[in-house]
């Protein structure tokens, strides 16, 4: 059961947003669980991470100073929410430090909850799919970041995550071959951006709007693709989604690309 | 020997730019050779066309009316220039009609001439390559337009044209495998656009700037890629380059993508 939560932190003194780099935010989040090893281990899965994190301010106003900030946390598997909620709602003294500044978890609000069953059943077999990539998105190939929204890369990534965390699986081979043969980018407006994760380390990814179109009417495959889009609002797409990259918004009232 | 020529036409009465759709311009150009079947046949090669055409006004000011217009004509093979020049420079009464309006070829100016030998020998083994796609560019796959600047699609297309028209060939297999393994998009700023070719027929393509980067230092391959970029300013890239699509500008003083 994917759950989207907003975590609000207060700071003991002002901090520049630009110092809250993705890796710092990632560290803050983990230090919430330092006294709860089991939960920490659940989050630290060896392969695909069962959560994503997003710190909007870093991508919008790096030059500003803040005395509080909000994190978006998405939990992707069914087991995680009760465990994380137990710690975050009921543990006392959830104080962490940000470069020496004390940060205190002030509030926690679930803003979106869906079930895998519901996402799949409620999905329509639409052939036009529109995704907005709100933060830099990329895929890894050897030492390179792939920075084009190739349908195959986008949906294979979503599918892997879905099948890792959902009790209802989507047959991967059929869907991937449908995507490879029938799903195309019909339009896009994208630009790439380089973002500093930590000190010298940078990631390049594309941001912007992408229109996909399926050339073939195949209801089962199309329903699965639309369910993956809904899921993408929790999971994000591509690299480093535990640090705010690959954040996606799905246009439910989707339009087709026509200029 | 690729040659870029500018053809200036005068019109007997004003014509709206939007009525000079790519297919109309293509027709005007061919009607220049209606009395010279041999030249017409040379241009009408069965597979890859040995020329490209570009009508800048259509992509810039479709709403305006004009009484004259300029066409850019690129001839790609060694044999074509003398033949085309003979007709265009020396034939009399090169009058053609544009939707019933008389168009007269008023002047003809070669603006760029290169040899295939010169492009290849003069090429540097640069690893950063920057291309500006000035008009919609796409590649055909079954019924779909592929509208992402995948390195493999861009350079395979250029290579096919080069080898079709150049007396010096570039070994295709080696170069394509170099591109597939080592050439990546390191940055881009693109948007897609739909353009009407004629009546209802439309083409979608991407426009904008694309940065390519080669992860491997391999001088021969890199020299060939840079030569192809120089050639691209004559040949264009992708579909319908005989109608103004896929027009490319190569940034010779190339920068690497860094933001």
TrEMBL record, chains A, B:
A Pfam short name: CRISPR_Cas6
Domain CRISPR-associated protein Cas6 C-terminal: 131-248
Molecular-function GO terms, alphabetical: endonuclease activity; hydrolase activity, acting on ester bonds
Keywords: Antiviral defense, Endonuclease, Hydrolase, Nuclease
Database matches in CDD domains: Cas6_III-like
GO biological process assignments: defense response to virus
Repeat among keywords: no
UniProt cross-references to InterPro entries, sorted A to Z: CRISPR-assoc_Cas6_C (IPR019267), CRISPR-assoc_prot_Cas6 (IPR010156), CRISPR-assoc_prot_Cas6_N_sf (IPR045747)
NCBIfam families documented for this protein: cas_cas6
Official protein name in the record: CRISPR-associated Cas6 family protein
Source organism: Phorcysia thermohydrogeniphila
Lineage, opening ranks: Bacteria, Pseudomonadati, Aquificota, Aquificia, Desulfurobacteriales
């Amino acid at each position: 059961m994917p759950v989207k939560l907003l975590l609000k932190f207060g700071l003991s003194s002002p901090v520049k947003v630009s110092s809250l780099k993705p890796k710092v935010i990632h560290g803050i989040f983990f230090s919430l669980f330092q006294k709860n090893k089991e939960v920490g281990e659940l989050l630290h899965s060896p392969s695909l991470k069962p959560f994503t994190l997003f710190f909007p301010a870093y991508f919008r106003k790096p030059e500003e100073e803040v005395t509080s900030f909000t994190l978006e946390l998405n939990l992707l598997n069914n087991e995680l929410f009760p465990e994380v909620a137990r710690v975050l709602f009921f543990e006392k003294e959830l104080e962490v430090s940000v470069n020496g500044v004390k940060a205190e978890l002030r509030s926690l609000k679930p803003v979106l909850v869906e079930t895998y069953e519901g996402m799949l059943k409620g999905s329509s077999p639409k052939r036009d799919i529109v995704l907005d990539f709100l933060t830099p998105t990329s895929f890894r190939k050897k030492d390179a970041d792939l920075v084009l929204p190739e349908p195959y890369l986008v949906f294979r990534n979503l599918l892997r995550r879905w099948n890792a965390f959902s009790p209802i699986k989507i047959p991967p081979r059929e869907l991937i071959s449908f995507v490879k043969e029938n799903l195309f980018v019909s339009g896009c407006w994208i630009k790439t951006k380089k973002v500093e994760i930590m000190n010298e380390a940078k990631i390049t990814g594309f941001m912007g709007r992408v229109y996909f179109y399926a050339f073939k009417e195949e209801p089962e495959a199309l329903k699965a693709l639309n369910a993956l889009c809904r899921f993408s609002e929790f999971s994000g797409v591509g690299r480093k989604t535990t640090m705010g990259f690959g954040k996606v918004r799905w246009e439910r009232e989707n339009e087709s690309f026509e200029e």
